[in-house]
User: Which sequence fits this backbone?
């Protein structure tokens, strides 16, 4: 069965950056299962997998505009340390949940200077060209429940 919209697709993948550093991999874990055509994975990878089938192996390069977007300086903000419940825990490199006008987001603390904390809400892979080494392990038709919910149920997916 070829991958098309509303297919449940399972893939093994290794993700590297331009310098070859492994950023993420499904090796040693269950394959990643997603619902094709529903934005469950980044557009550049989803588009490259269209019409592939179980057993296919491919290398996919995804530019930022088809991945996590470009870095956006307006997503970097300086806030007062008194906004944190446990200011002594706030250190560069930690990830924190923040309330934004668009809902809850994850920010990385990039700097703490005195009473000022710099938060970066860009996705950690924003601005990066991504290199995927992918193997399609399974393709099946999605159930009506999966299609209406917009994601995979069962092993490798979400259950609601």
Assistant:
């Amino acid at each position: 069965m070829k991958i098309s919209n509303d297919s449940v697709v399972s893939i093994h993948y290794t993700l590297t950056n331009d310098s070859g550093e492994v950023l993420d991999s499904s090796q040693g874990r269950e394959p990643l299962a997603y619902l094709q055509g529903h934005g469950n994975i980044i557009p550049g990878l989803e588009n490259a997998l269209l019409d592939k089938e179980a057993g296919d192996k491919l290398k996919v390069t995804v530019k930022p505009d088809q991945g996590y977007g470009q870095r956006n300086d307006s997503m970097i903000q300086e806030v007062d340390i008194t906004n944190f419940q446990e200011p002594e825990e706030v250190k560069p490199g930690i990830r924190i949940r923040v309330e934004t006008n668009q809902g809850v987001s994850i920010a990385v603390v990039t700097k703490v200077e005195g009473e000022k904390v710099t938060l970066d809400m860009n996705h950690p892979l924003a601005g990066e060209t991504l290199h995927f080494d992918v193997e399609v392990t399974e393709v099946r038709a999605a159930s009506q429940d999966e299609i209406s919910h917009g994601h995979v149920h069962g092993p490798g997916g979400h259950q609601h």
Notes: The radius of gyration is 19 Å. The chain has a mean pLDDT of 93. The longest helix spans residues 43-49. The domain at 7-68+125-149 is CATH 3.10.50.40 (Chitinase A; domain 3).
